[in-house]
Specification:
With about 500 residues, the chain is of the alpha+beta class. The protein has a single domain, classed as Orthogonal Bundle (Cytochrome p450), CATH 1.10.630. The chain has helices spanning about 30-40, 65-70, 85-90, 100-115, 125-140, 145-160, 170-185, 195, 205-210, 215-245, 255-265, 275-305, 310-320, 345-355, 390, 435-455, 495-500; strands at about 45-50, 55-60, 365, 370-375, 375-380, 385, 455, 485-490. The strands form three sheets. It has a four-stranded mixed beta sheet with strand order 1-2-6-3. The radius of gyration is 24 Å and the shape is globular. Bound molecules: protoporphyrin IX containing FE. The site of protoporphyrin IX containing FE has 28 residues, from helix 4, helix 12 and helix 16. Belongs to the cytochrome P450 family. Keywords: Heme, Iron, Metal-binding, Monooxygenase, Oxidoreductase, Signal.
Length: about 500
């Protein structure tokens, strides 16, 4: 009776639950997106309903349902549930987790206008410089490729957000992002823990919490809180006083916003964005933009290793667009001006986001009012997960969806499959990722620079057979790939010269 709607309205299909606790034990702890997709097939529906301890949960399994509800009816689906576990973890005023409120509107407006497609052009020189620096670092230390690429994405968001430049080696901020990723990754699917359902349980002492596995994420959140706070506070503290003293002259989001704040303050004018807001928004750029971009670069390399034909085509296209000398050495490095002509590479990047969507269940939205979809009732206050992974595997849209196949987006009359570009990986409606253009410019410049200057190969076993990476993705907010072997070596001396080694 717990999840029967009082007015006998029909709720979306769901598997059987248990008395009182509903589906608490029915939903898998780890990678629930796979089981959601199986249930959707079993019940022949694109919308599922769950009730966990009295809270309604809706899972959308098709792009059509996500478009209809999260995009078209976005005004009703733009709230977030309260992420109590993430609050315990120390996530402060971070846009990703803000409920619908004037503060949300302010943060969203400031972030969105700073990262439109045209505003992102201003950051391209930073991204190109960091991509080349990363490629040079890989030439010097091929085994360090993964951490060097992480350094790239951390460097970009820190420069864009705070005007801070990271060190070439052992940078403390890179270590901080690693800690934060570990902390967040092990927090499980957002808004799905027992403390998210019963916020008062966040006060359960560790001595009692240790007795049940339900509280494991709570203990983990308390243990890792300091990592998240450090990444929120450290960059701000390192620039605040110099901006106040007008010493910090590198352009950045914080510099522009904080300068304006100080000007208004001196003139006795009110400020819309207070210091806590500026700090929170800049923190969101660093935290939401670093690991996400890095992970997408790594997945792209993985896809190219798994599909040597796609790798060869992407490289050939770069040769075509840039031109080669008699040794097949490129005449120059790729730039952002080449991007519109590198059409196959664009499809490689689309396929990367479809093949292994970074957030398989997105970041959950929440409904502000009751709604109805295909005759099913959606109660106000429901937590809504877009099952982006299920959408990316929808065989009505994608043939052989497990394959990494950039050609699937090419028109049929040019030998492609004419399949639609993925549009769930960056979320939906009024909460869709505001950093999409910045992120994909970063992925583009790194991958094109690597393809232009390096060989990317799988390592070989003692019999000379290639060891194909078989990767496990982490659970939780982002599905980050585990480490894998990849040999990245310069194509030629000429390539090293182009990079400025
Ligand atoms: C390839 C890299 C990235 C991917 C795959 C990605 C993906 C996502 C997804 C799925 C969401 C949730 C959208 C929703 O709720 O519907 C999101 C939100 C967000 N992303 Fe990204 N993101 C990436 C890079 C970035 C970057 C570089 C930034 C920095 C500017 C950023 C900032 C944010 C913020 C602030 C939110 C919260 C928006 C809100 O709640 O209103 N992301 N991102």
């Amino acid at each position: 009776w717990i999840w029967r709607d009082k007015r006998q309205r029909i709720l979306p299909p769901s598997p059987p639950g248990q008395p009182l606790i509903g589906h608490l034990r029915v939903i898998p702890d780890r990678h629930p997106e796979f089981q959601y997709a199986r249930w959707a097939k079993e019940y022949d529906t694109d919308i599922l309903y769950f009730n966990v301890l009295g809270r309604s949960i809706i899972v959308l399994n098709s792009i059509e349902a996500a478009h209809e509800l999260l995009d078209k009816r976005g005004a009703n689906y733009s709230d977030r549930p309260r992420f109590v576990l993430f609050e315990v973890m120390g996530w402060g005023v971070t846009l990703t987790f803000l409920r619908w409120s004037p503060r949300f509107v302010l943060h969203r407006k400031l972030l969105q206008k700073s990262f439109t497609q045209s505003a992102c052009k201003a950051y391209q020189p930073i991204q190109a410089e960091e991509a080349r620096r990363a490629a040079r670092a890989i030439v010097a230390d091929p085994n360090g490729w993964e951490i060097i690429l992480r350094q790239f994405s951390t460097a970009v968001v820190l420069r864009v957000g705070f005007g801070i430049e990271v060190q070439e080696k052992d940078d403390p901020y890179v270590k901080m992002t690693l800690d934060v990723e570990e902390a967040t990754g092990q927090g499980g699917v957002p808004a799905s823990n027992v403390v998210d359902f019963f916020p008062v349980l966040r006060y359960v002492p560790n001595s009692i919490a240790r007795l049940s596995k339900l509280f494991r994420p709570l203990i983990h959140a308390r243990r890792t809180k300091r990592f998240i706070q450090r990444l929120h506070d450290a960059p701000w503290e390192s620039v605040e006083s110099s901006i106040r003293a007008k010493e910090h002259l590198k352009p950045s989001f914080v510099h522009t916003q904080f300068d304006q704040y100080l000007v208004n303050e001196a003139a006795g004018k009110p400020n819309d964005a207070m210091i806590e807001d500026i700090k929170g928004i800049a923190g969101a750029i660093t935290i939401a933009g670093g690991n996400t971009t890095w992970s997408t670069i790594i997945v792209c390399i993985l896809g190219l290793l798994k599909n040597p034909e796609a790798y060869a085509k992407a490289r050939a296209e770069i040769e075509d667009v840039i031109g080669v000398d008699e040794n097949r050495d490129l005449l120059r490095l790729p730039t952002f001006e080449d991007r519109p002509r590198l059409k196959y590479l664009a499809n490689v990047l689309h396929e990367t986001t479809r093949w292994q969507p970074l957030s398989p269940l997105g970041v959950p939205h929440a409904t502000l009012a009751d709604d109805e979809y295909n005759g099913f009732h959606i109660p106000a206050g429901s937590v809504v997960y877009p099952n982006v992974r299920a959408m990316s595997r929808d065989e009505r849209h994608y043939s052989s969806p497990e394959e990494f196949c950039p050609e699937r987006y090419e028109p049929v009359d040019r030998g492609g499959r004419g399949e639609p570009l993925p549009d769930g990986p960056f979320g939906f409606g009024r909460r869709a990722c505001p950093g999409k253009y910045l992120a994909m410019s970063g992925v583009y410049i790194v991958i094109s620079t690597l393809l232009a200057t390096m060989h990317l190969r799988c390592p070989k076993d003692e019999n000379g057979n290639e060891i194909l990476p078989n990767i496990v993705f982490s659970d939780g907010l982002s599905g980050v790939p585990g480490s894998f072997g990849c040999l990245i070596t310069p194509r030629s001396k000429h390539a090293e010269v182009l990079l400025g080694c």
